[in-house]
UniProtKB/TrEMBL annotation:
It is found in: Cell membrane. This is Branched-chain amino acid ABC transporter permease. Keywords: Cell membrane, Membrane, Transmembrane, Transmembrane helix, Transport. It comes from the Bacteria. It comes from Cupriavidus laharis. The keyword Amino-acid biosynthesis does not apply.
Amino acid sequence: MTSPQPSAWLRLWHGIAPAERTAFIDGVRFFAPSLPAVFSWGLVTGVAMSKSVMTVPEAIGMTLLVYAGSAQLAVLPLFAAGLPLWTVWLTAAFVNLRFVIFSAALQPHFSYLPLWRRTLLGSFNGDLHFVYFMQRYSTPGYEPGKEGYFWGMALANFAMWQASSIIGILLASLFPDSWGLALAGTMALIPVMIATINSRSTLLAVVASAILALLCFDLPYRLGLVVAVVGAIAAGMASDDLAARATLRRIHRRKSSTRAVAAPQAGQGDQA
């Protein structure tokens, strides 16, 4: 009697290196506490799309293909106003410019992968798991489990986002407009953002992005978001650079003081 053949998904899973499988599960577990916030934001986006001029099939198609909540919300008023399609594409591109920066930051970590795998990986990138990934892996280059860890978080985020967004689309009629769902979604993301502040550089980046977002709030095409992201990255990099220079200065002072103490001792030894 022959044993049943494993399914294609199971064969694919076992074909992955053990280190990547373990890291994938670790990524899912680490990202799990953020899933309620992702669910809230996806639900809000789904309700907003369903209550706009889009039909239910159009809204579901958009959430599956676009997979970018801020861009999806940004273009809804343009659809409602009947503006040309090129303005919709341009607005979405401006809102998503931060992912160009994210991709540039990820490139040193996955430069060894072929182009099609890097493209696929970038297509599933997102704000939260990008931050979590960069916190865990600070050294560029290949490391066993690095890709699996990213995919664990990315696919958990993708699955929760799509499920919550489609639920919001299908059940939008049950949510009155007076509930203020957009504010609820924003409030749900604030604890997740606070949890990522674990260093002085991150805190400076958050403060800089908040100030820039407020100052540039009235810019068209949501450009204030792009300015805030660029400013946050610049502030974080500047803080890291200043911290590194301060560390080097302390090391040089310690070495200088050690040599200063050692010199008289060496002179006394020569006289003896």
